[in-house]
């Protein structure tokens, strides 16, 4: 059985959502970053980490790709052109949404106060709004890539929600409706209920 290290309030949400979507059983080790149990499986102390037997895989997008490939679900097969587009979308979402949200979050409350730069969150908000416009152009519907849900949707919707949580607006009707549909999925709802207030 897989072991998921992390809390649903972190990027571990993506891994838990994936496991619920594909119906694979798991044990949740509900620990935050830098917990000794995390350091035991990931030298950076970051979450999520997926325990697989005696081995462990870090980084949510690598974990999702591994699970998708292993179980043949929520992915196009490796070596196809669709897979290349899927990977490209994942990298675009990581570059243009995840990294922008992460920098804004770090400069809001994660970094030691003396390291925070007050202007950075508003600069990141501007970048996020600009990048959402580009994402909207790539969005095919009903899922990011068209008719098939892929792991790119999991990472993307997690970022859209993160943006909502820190009041970074998504001003695009198709993306807003997409986010609403994705959040209504039973697997998403199950993991959302695990988040602590
Ligand atoms: N690229 C990694 C990022 C992991 C990450 O930064 N996780 C955060 C929690 S959501 C963390 O552990 N932060 C602690 C730190 O930055 O030291 C992923 O996608 O899993």
Strand content: 5-15%
State the secondary-structure class: alpha+beta
Work out the radius of gyration: 17 Å
Cα shape: globular
Distance between the termini: 28 Å
Number of domains as seen in the coordinates: 2
CATH architecture of the largest domain: Up-down Bundle
Please count the beta strands (DSSP E, at least 2 residues each).
4
CATH class of the largest domain, named: Mainly Alpha
Report mean pLDDT, rounded to a whole number. Answer: 97
Helix content: 55-70%
Strand order across the largest sheet: 2-1-3-4
Question: Helix count, per DSSP?
Answer: 8
Biggest sheet statistics: 4 strands, mixed
CATH topology of the largest domain: Glutathione S-transferase Yfyf (Class Pi), Chain A, domain 2
Low-confidence stretches: none
Ligands bound here?
A: glutathione
Run of helices and strands: EHEHEEHHHHHH
